[in-house]
Amino acid sequence: MDGIVFGLCALFGIAGTVLSTREAWRHRDQTEYRIARFARATAFGVCTVGVLLAVPSVEGLVESMTGMNNAAKIGAHICAVLWCGSLQLMLVDWSYNQDVLKASLYARVAFAACVLTAMLPLFVYTTEEGVEFTTEYASIPGVTVYLMVYLGYVAITCGEIAFLCSGMALVARRRGHTWSARGLALSTASALLGVGYAASKGSYLVAHYLGHPWPLEKEEILSPLLAGLAVIALITGLTMAMIGRRLASRKAIV
Prior knowledge:
The protein has 254 residues and is mainly alpha-helical. The protein contains 8 helices and no strands.
């Protein structure tokens, strides 16, 4: 399941990275939304790397090459944090006015830095041979705390992404920008799937701690499926919004 889901995500990620990088390069001289274009290309790029590291065969290859247990896991989780953080920066640049833009950007960068600062010591302290940072090892306290920090960040950032995308989708619809409105609406749904992914894994960890977990097999199917759908839908939705903005700008010129 993981190989199929995350392999498909990688294909979408590569396509989205190419398109967004071309868009950023084409408008490199324009100051308006420069941060957003750079952040979107960065988000798609790190997402592609992250989902590739989550493919079991790639994960095994990375660990054998580095000789480090859970090397691919920590890499994928760092990419996920950078992915969510970059998307926040993109949407903040799209949504906020210049008066509060810098403070808003700095706040989100600081939040991501704090999360990574908390995750890395937990990882170093807990990782050892035979231990993986998955819900299968929820009985190990360090794994549970590490995952809850990571999942808490994902849930919070995806919640904000859903909020910002939904607001921009309504504005785009009122202005008659159909492609942008549909793309942002799809992005809203995908961010909610991201919240669902974090809630699925997080609630399993809490239930396991309380001594009443549901079957692990169901969680191991549901969580990757939610994560994969979130990644594919978000890349598709933001690409549609990018195309919509381009079409709107062309119409304005004409």
